[in-house]
Amino acid sequence: MRLLLLGAPGSGKGTVAQRLCNERDIPQISTGDILREAVREGTDLGLKAKSYMDAGKLVPDEVILGMMEKRLTAPDCASGYVLDGFPRTLAQATGLDELTERTEKPLEAAVYIEVPEDEVIKRITSRRSCPKCGAIYNVLYSPPKKEGICDACGAALEQRSDDTEEVVKNRYQIYLKETSPLIEYYHGQDKLITVDGVGGMDEVYSRVTAGLEGRIATGS
Ligand code: AMP
């Protein structure tokens, strides 16, 4: 399965990607996670990306494409992958097409998770994550048992520095301008599957798997 997830920040791409990948034993490739790790480790990539991320802006296409070319040609991608947060611009989408043509392993589908703006802003600003084990909570919809503490490992939960209301509004505007044209792009390639992203986690996930059925070889 070679798949990408499209949708606004906070639309649930990460949650869906994680579940698809766990069930199929293929890598979940989140550009945001790769970049955050690079920032934490202080690598060249992290130094290049940090100021853009802090401001909620997109990291330049050439940086992202170089990073993804390396990632997608790694051996663990041979049996498939789910892309989460990439591509985010038309230049990234055409770069991905060139890469998959070269490797003769085309993308099979683009799943667009549709969620209205007021809902995504609410979801993101109430999101909290565990810096130690990566567990994700939402203080409105799926709070930890003890306020501010990770159920799984007991660490103090944090809010991502780019999940504040001001930065989120900026990220949403950038999504509308730069990323939402990709919906039409993948529709034109007959790869688009649109799913209603409003509802519980299980409900949205079932819509995704139902949408994929018959469209791609779900076993691979
Ligand atoms: P995310 O975790 O997907 O919300 O990404 C967090 C931040 O990382 C974004 O606001 C961007 O600054 C940066 N980022 C992640 N993926 C990309 C991408 N494909 N292109 C450019 N910037 C990205």
- The helix/strand series, from N terminus to C terminus, equals EHEHHHEHEHEEHHEH
Using the coordinates above, name the CATH class of the domain at 2-115 and 179-212.
Alpha Beta
> Regions with pLDDT < 50 over 5+ consecutive residues?
none
Distance between the termini: 5 Å
The CATH architecture assignment of the domain at 2-115 and 179-212 turns out to be: 3-Layer(aba) Sandwich
CATH superfamily of the domain at 2-115 and 179-212: P-loop containing nucleotide triphosphate hydrolases
Q: How would you sum up the global shape?
A: globular
Radius of gyration over alpha carbons?
A: 17 Å
Instruction: Please tell me the overall pLDDT.
Output: 92
Strand order of the largest sheet: 2-3-1-4-7
Briefly note the CATH topology name of the domain at 2-115 and 179-212.
Rossmann fold
Summarize the structure.
The protein is α/β, with parallel strands linked by helices. It has helices at residues 13-24, 31-41, 44-54, 61-72, 90-102, 117-125, 165-179, 181-188, 201-212; strands at residues 2-6, 28-30, 81-84, 109-114, 127-129, 136-138, 192-196.
Structural features:
220 residues; alpha/beta; Rossmann fold; five-stranded parallel sheet; two-stranded antiparallel sheet; 47% helix; globular; binds adenosine monophosphate
Please tell me about this protein's structure.
- The chain is an alpha/beta fold.
- The chain has a domain at 2-115 and 179-212: Rossmann fold, CATH 3.40.50.
- It has nine helices and seven strands, in the order βαβαααβαβαββααβα.
- The chain has helices at residues 13-24, 31-41, 44-54, 61-72, 90-102, 117-125, 165-179, 181-188, 201-212, and strands spanning 2-6, 28-30, 81-84, 109-114, 127-129, 136-138, 192-196.
- The strands form two sheets. The protein has a five-stranded parallel beta sheet with strand order 2-3-1-4-7, with helices on both faces.
- A hairpin with a 6-residue loop joins β5 (127-129) and β6.
- α4 (61-72) runs parallel beside α5 (90-102) and α6 (117-125) packs across α7 (165-179).
- The protein is globular, with a radius of gyration of 17 Å.
- The mean pLDDT is 92.
- It binds adenosine monophosphate.
- Adenosine monophosphate binds at residues 9, 31-32, 35, 52-53, 56-59, 64, 85-86, 88, 92, 162, 171.
